[in-house]
Specification:
mainly alpha
Length: 90
């Protein structure tokens, strides 16, 4: 049970980290858009920040939300179980 609890706690911490990242992304980029509009409305420079930071945010989301994909903990557990069963058959 301790292992299940620690995995669940880690999952919650990962989700909190992602949502914090998302909130910072939204707040900072809205602020930058306002500053951009007030200072240099003819050139949308804030989009460069939004684009590159967005790549990082998408990467973070894939890490947090694709926990059942290739190389996840569940995948590792299935492979270990598969190899143990193959060894038992020998």
């Amino acid at each position: 049970m301790d292992e299940s609890y620690h995995r669940a706690k880690k999952r919650v911490e990962d989700l909190k980290g992602f949502y914090g990242h998302l909130m910072a992304f939204i707040i900072v980029n809205v602020f930058l858009a306002i500053v951009n509009y007030l200072t240099t409305p003819g050139f949308p420079w804030f989009l460069f920040v939004t684009f590159f930071w967005g790549i990082g945010l998408v990467s973070h989301a894939l890490t947090v939300f694709s926990n059942r994909g290739v190389f996840s903990k569940e995948w590792e557990d299935r492979k270990i179980k598969q190899y143990l069963e193959e060894e038992e058959k020998r």
